[in-house]
Structures are given as structure tokens and as C-alpha cells.
Amino acid sequence: MSSELRLLHVGEAGGPRVKLGPYDIETLIAESDEGAATAYRIRIAPHQRTQVSYHLVAEEFYYVISGSGVALLDGMEQPLRAGDFLRLPPGTTHGVVTTAVELVMLDVHTPGSRTNRDVYFLEGGPEGFGAPQAP
């Protein structure tokens, strides 16, 4: 982590992107610029079901930019549509089922979480997610 935080601007064209299972993850804060949080723009294609995951340390915030789907939160279904906001305390299990349109969300974790840090799956993670480091 950098000892000096700096102002960041990531335009619509976005930051680095990686495809991991059903997730198209765009990093909005590079690891070298990470401070107290991480932020991603997440895209999930139509008719997809993500695997259920959770974080031991990070609190997670989702804001639905566009599309629709269903969030699976601690086993309960919650409809998602543009403009919805979710706050997930540490330990909250969560997954997503998309409808006939792509779901695009802003995803923020505090403290930061990355594909190899503080991401745990109930049943083996999607290809490309690294083994999490112990908290």
C-alpha cells in the first residue's frame, strides 16, 4: 500500500478488467493506490448465477448501476434493480442471479478486499479467484 494517498479519477472507459467465472471485474482503485477501501465495477452477463461468497473482515457495499437480478443474502432472496443499494456486514453470504439483461454494479469493500484476499466461497470459487490469505 502506498504511504501517500492520491486523488484518483477513473472515467467511463474504466480501469484494468479481468474475467473470473461469471464476473467481469473492473478495478477502480489499483492495488498500489489502495487506502482504506477497494472499489470495482462488476458486470455479470444475463442468465448467470454466481457462487455464494463472504468476507471475514470486509464490509461490502453494492450500488446497482443498471440491469436487474436477485441477490441471495444469507439464503434470502432480494430483488435488485437500478438504483438499489446493499450494505453487507462481514460474514454475510451473498450471490447473484441475473435476469435477461446484464447486471452492472459498483462494489466497494472496507477494508479492501481482492480476489486473493478476504474472499471465501461456500463451494469452491470461480476459476481465476486465488486462494484467500488468512486474515
Contiguous helical run count: 0
Oligomer designation: single chain
The major beta sheet can be summarized as: 6 strands, antiparallel
* Order of SSEs: EEEEEEEEEEE
Task: Classify the beta-strand content into a percent band.
Answer: 35-45%
Cα end-to-end separation: 16 Å
Number of DSSP-assigned strands: 11
- Fraction of residues in helix: under 10%
The dominant shape is: globular
Contiguous runs where pLDDT drops below 50 for at least 5 residues = none
The chain-level mean pLDDT equals 88
Q: Identify the strand order in the major beta sheet.
A: 1-2-3-10-5-8
Instruction: Decide which structural class fits the backbone.
Output: mainly beta
Please compute the radius of gyration using only Cα atoms.
Answer: 14 Å
If you had to describe this structure to a student in words, what would you say it looks like?
- By secondary structure, the chain is an all-beta fold.
- Helix content is 0%, strand content 42%.
- It has no helices and eleven strands.
- The protein has a six-stranded antiparallel sheet with strand order 1-2-3-10-5-8, with no helix packed on it. Strands 7-6-9 form a three-stranded antiparallel sheet, with no helix packed on it. Strands 4-11 form a two-stranded antiparallel ribbon.
- Strand 1 and strand 2 form a beta hairpin.
- 20% of the residues are buried.
- The mean pLDDT is 88.
